[in-house]
Write a structure and sequence with these properties.
This protein is α+β, with helices and mostly antiparallel strands. Strand 3 and strand 4 form a beta hairpin. InterPro entries: Acyl_CoA_acyltransferase, FEMABX, PG_Glycine_Bridge_Synth.
């Protein structure tokens, strides 16, 4: 039996990283060099996987320093971007991950965390709706999926066997990136197809916004203060802690400098009043709804539906395969505070996708345990 040649992981330039991303149909925006610029509290590094001289994979590694010592937690959010089909082959994961572990170890890492966008399971729109209607079903994990992928199963099994720690089962949103996301497939569909896929309430609200005269336009950096003011109002109303204005300013500068189409700001106005605003990120054939805000006043003109419909159509026109509405929780109870968010996303006719989630590998178990305890106390 012949073994595949060993791979090497080493630091690569920003240009090499962007070229590697350009070779793929989609890579998470959290794995772009620009995201390293956004996360200023972390040290960032672009790394590449080499098969001989050929660059065959890439990733953004963020390093978070432990208190009082020069050791780090290495983190690849929604990454790395490697050939997961190859990694899913029998004992294939070791070939890809062992050189990564050695690399970050050389950078002073005491632990490694990653969250591959490898799909493990999918639930159709109809399946999730039926689960919501069943009083005996409280969690998505208790619902039989419409699809379980061989790649996701193999990656999960191999990570477990290699001593990686799986994502915890929690109710609500956990720290880090979401394991469950809501996606609207766009491939091979027209705007008419998509509109027919919306539920009756969504179609009615889109028509209502249009009849009320809601207009949706693209914003510029000059519109960020207005967006942030509305976002802060939304945070106060919905009970979450808003990010500061400087965060969005940094995000805009970093991402639009890297690629003009990477980040867009959408503004929905009604008779001169800003009633909703959102940001959309795009890398290759994947578009993400990232942040949203809406006014408490004039809710009846349905600015939020109007701005989402505009983003979906733009993603379709840009040739995207997927419009991603990002995270949802695992809970399916009607009395759950996140039920309204899930129902809003369900109205688009999309599906629930479960990734393999964020896995941890303690490189130094003592330091990893101490850091884990420190972070739990902080939160």
């Amino acid at each position: 039996m012949t073994h595949a040649p060993a791979l090497l992981v080493r630091r690569i330039t920003r240009a090499e990283h962007l070229a590697a991303i350009g070779e793929r149909s989609a890579v998470s925006f959290l794995q772009t060099p620009a995201w390293g610029d956004v996360k200023r509290d972390w040290r960032s590094e672009s790394v590449g996987w080499f098969d001989g001289d050929a660059l065959v994979g890439a990733g953004l590694v963020l390093y978070r320093k432990a208190p009082r010592i020069r050791r780090y937690l290495a983190y690849l959010p929604e990454g790395p971007a490697i050939d997961w089909d190859d990694a899913a082959k029998q004992d294939g994961l070791q070939r890809w991950l062992d050189p990564l572990v050695e690399h970050v170890k050389g950078q002073g890492a005491f632990g490694l965390r990653m969250g591959p966008t490898v799909v493990r399971r999918r639930w159709s729109n109809g399946t999730v709706k039926e689960a919501f209607a069943d009083d005996g079903v409280h969690r998505l994990r208790d619902v039989t999926p419409d699809e379980t992928t061989p790649v996701g199963t193999s990656v999960t099994d191999q990570l477990t066997a290699a001593g990686w720690r799986p994502p915890p089962e929690v109710d609500g949103f956990a720290a880090g990136q979401p394991q469950h996301v809501f996606q609207l497939p766009l491939s091979g569909r027209s705007t008419e197809d998509l509109l027919r896929g919306f539920n009756q309430l969504w179609r009615r609200n889109i028509k209502k916004a249009d009849k009320a005269g809601v207009t949706v336009t693209l914003g510029t950096a000059d519109d960020l203060p207005a967006f942030h003011e509305l976002y802060a109002q939304t945070a106060h109303r919905d009970g979450f802690t808003p990010r500061p204005f400087s965060y969005f300013q940094g995000m805009w500068d970093a991402m639009t400098t890297e690629a003009a189409e990477r980040l867009r700001l959408y503004l929905a106005h009604h008779e001169g009043d800003l009633v909703a605003a959102t940001t959309m990120v795009r890398v290759g054939e994947h578009a993400w709804y990232s942040y949203g805000a809406s006014s408490t006043a004039k809710r009846d003109v349905r600015g939020s539906n109007a701005v989402q419909w505009r983003m979906i159509r733009d993603a379709l026109d840009d040739g995207c395969e997927v419009y991603d509405l990002r995270g949802i929780t695992d809970t399916l109870r009607e009395d759950d505070p996140h039920a309204g968010l899930i129902r809003f996303k369900l109205g688009t006719g999309g599906e629930v996708v479960e990734y393999v989630g964020e896995w941890d590998l303690p490189i130094s178990r003592v330091l990893y345990s101490a850091f884990d305890l420190y972070m739990k106390r902080r939160s």
